[in-house]
Each structure stands twice: as C-alpha cells, then as structure tokens.
Amino acid sequence: MSTAQVPPVTSIGIPRITAGYDEYGRLDLQAHQEVHGGFAALSSGELIGLADRIELRGRGGAGFPFARKVRAVIDSCKRQDLPPVIVVNATEGEPPSWKDKAILTRGPHLILDGAALAAAALDAEEIVIGIADDGIGQNSLTAALAERKMPCPTRIVTVPHRFISGEGGALVRGINGEAHIPPGRKVRSSDNGVMGLPTLLSNAETYSQLAIAARLGPWEYNSVGIPEEPGTVMLTVGGSATNPAVVEAPSGTPLMDVLAMCGADIGPGLLVGGYHGKWISAEQAETVTISRKGFAKVGGTLGAGMLIPIGSKTCALGEVAQVVQYLAGESAGQCGPCRLGLPDLARAVTLVSLGGSALEQVRQAAGLVKGRGACSHPDGTSRFALSALEVFAKDVEAHANGEGCGKQVRGILPLPYTAEKGARKLALDWSRCDGHGLCSAVAPEIIRLDHNGFPAFPQTPLPPWLEDGARKAVNVCPALALRLIDPATAAH
C-alpha cells in the first residue's frame, strides 16, 4: 500500500478530508474512526437536503449539483421501477491530477463512507468503484473494503489509465464491459447506467465531502469557505512548483497563497482546471481566489482542481504542443471533430512552436472542432490551445521571428509517455542531411522544413501514436540522416 508515487499532501487551515494524514500516513478503519468519528444513516430526503444546504457540487470537473443528480436518479427509479447503482469515479486519468489518488491511498474509508451513505439512502443494488489500471490506490482500497461491511455488494473495476476513460459515460461503458470511451451520443446515467439501471455517478472527492458533511452537519460544514461555495477544495499543484503537493484549502483562499506554499514560479502563465482547462496570465493569477466564481472572473475554471504554473525556465509553446499532440491521440475516434480535427489542431500548434506562421491555422482548426464533438474532448482541447496562444503571445512572436524563446521543453506539463518510459525521439545527423525534404512530406505532423529547407522537429520524446509516421520519415531519407533513438539510452 505504498504512497510513494503520490505527491505530499498538505493543507491550509484545519484539514478535513486530509485530517490524520500527518499522524497516521494512511488511515485504516480504526484510525479513520478515531479521526473522523461515526455518522448516522440518512434517508433519501435527508441526503438531498444535506447536499442542497452545503451547495455540494461534483469535484471531477463539471461541478454539477450533487442534489440534482440524486433527485434525477430517484425519479428514474420510480418511473422505471428499478433499483439504482452507486458509482464512484476514482479513475483520475488526467496526467497532472493526484487529489483523488491521494484520498484513495491515504484515506479510502472516507470515499467508502460517502458511497455507503448514498447507497443506504437510495436502497442501491450495488456500489461500483472505478479506478485506473496504474495500480495506484488499488491495494489501499481493497484493504479498506476488507475491513468493513458495506450496505450492498461493492466491487472495484479497473479502467485503462487514459485521459478519456475517466469521462462519466466512458466509465459506465467500461463497467458494462464495453469499450472504455465516451458514448457517441448523450446518455443520462441517471436513466440508463450500469447494467441499464439508474446510476448515481460522482467523483471520489465528492463522496468524501459528503461523508464529512454527514458528520459535521450543514452549519458546521458551511463555517469554512465562502457562503456560495462552502467547505474545502482539494487541489493538485504541480508544474514548476519546487514543492509539488496535493493541497486541501478552504474555498476563497487566495490562489497566490497556495502557489507560494508550493514554491511555484508562475512565469508568464498558469494552467487552471487541467488539460481541458484554460491558461491565465501571471497578472490574472494574482487576483484569483480558489472557487468556481473566482476562476470564472478571469475566464478560467476550477475544474478538477489542477494548478500548473509553467515557470520562467521552460519553452511554454513546446510544452503546449506536446500536450495537444497527446490530447489528439486520446481521441475516441468516433466523430470527425476528434478523429480529423484534433490532429489538424495538433499539427498547427506544433508548427507555431517550431516558428511557423500557423496562428490562423490553429484558430481555424479549433473553430472547426468547437461545439461539434460527441463528447467534451474537442472543446476542452481547443480551449487549452487557444488560451495558451493568447497568454503566451510574446513567445509566439519570438518563435515566429526566428529568435525563439531561448528555453527548452522540460516536461513541466506531465505526460504518460516520457523517455524514461520508453518513448523515442527523432535525431538528425547534420553531416549527412542534404535537405531533400522527403521526411516533411511523409510526416508533416512532426517535421517541417526551416527557411533553409532543412528539417525541424520537436526535440522531445514522441507520443506513441506518432512513431509510425516518424519511422516512415526515417525510411524515406535518402541520405540516411534521420533516425529514431531512445533518449534514455543515448544519454549514457
């Protein structure tokens, strides 16, 4: 039950969800009860009333009111005369996010408490907990289930550790034995979810917050944070932070306080809300408080609580290009905007990062996918890309005029593939290259020709889905100047 892969956990103010972490490390059932105490079961009406009074919203990104979800499930159960299923989404497939894994590995009983409260109130058929297949938190959760009795059968389902596998519809499909991708059409899990039953689906932190509120009651729960968004928020602070951490903070906390705690060098911009979130400038960051309303004032989003400062020592455009390439590869491939539009967007952003004048291509590609996808993936990806070009406008200009920003891509924005994990990169033997240009014709999404007619490409590990194109470019090079290398091996 190692927690070594999870960042340190800390808090601003008195911890709630993270209470006991410093003392116990991981809370088994006995430690959990000593720290949090017991709670009384709730009826369905009491559950809705509690969620309403504490303004509980989903903490997985969308921020949908929890009480409305419960009402929708109850109405569907009555209409169809079927029992519900409770689903906990603890998959956390987005590379920069660690808050749910922190709870899984350190305080799993709080997640189970929340799920048990909902299951007992709704007389559920089953509880299903979805986690990623990276193994983080699975042993901890399994051990916690073995220590206690749940109100109905409870099982753990693992899903591929991919960006789109954690989307609600994709999780339900995966639990049902289908492909772990979002459905091609809008399906309400409250009407037709796991095994065709009405399904209450929410994020792991959401159920943990529910368990805290059931113990404290609405008045005490609302005594922390701001009135319209009471309680605490779980945040993942990464990027350029010298002390990356999962932070529990009261809503309304100044953003700069959280970043200062983690030693974050903001640089020109900060990504808020994750890879479907938005970039904000350093100046905007100084005005933000931690809340949905606070981020909305600067056009950002709290999302699933990810705060990723880019820092002043990395090539922001190169980092952004890598992430857009990754997001394009994470497409479910079931609609045109994803299958065709996102690769076009990735190529255009990559060209901008390499100094090409492709700004209008980026805007055009983003415009073609926005609002047209079968799920939110195209919209989120275009928002990420467009806001980056706006915040990093000075870097765009520097790259376009040939000077560049003078910085290297350092992996500030985490990806599931790296040189250490076996990803390869392109390398060029300049003594052999004659500038034939065949490589750019074969793999235009990776290679372009500079103003002298020689190939230019990112000096970073390639996403696995681009390796085939890179290999074809290597094979067509008549001078044998281009090759694929293993950066980790080459470094030695």
From TrEMBL:
Keyword Lyase annotated: no
Cofactor (UniProt): FMN; [4Fe-4S] cluster
Annotated ranges, domain NADH-ubiquinone oxidoreductase 51kDa subunit iron-sulphur binding: 317-362
Secretion signal span: none
Keywords: 4Fe-4S, Flavoprotein, FMN, Iron, Iron-sulfur, Metal-binding
Gene3D superfamilies: 3.10.20.600, 3.30.70.20, NADH-ubiquinone oxidoreductase 51kDa subunit, NADH-ubiquinone oxidoreductase 51kDa subunit, iron-sulphur binding domain
Protein name from the UniProt record: NADH-ubiquinone oxidoreductase-F iron-sulfur binding region domain-containing protein
Biological source species: Actinoplanes oblitus
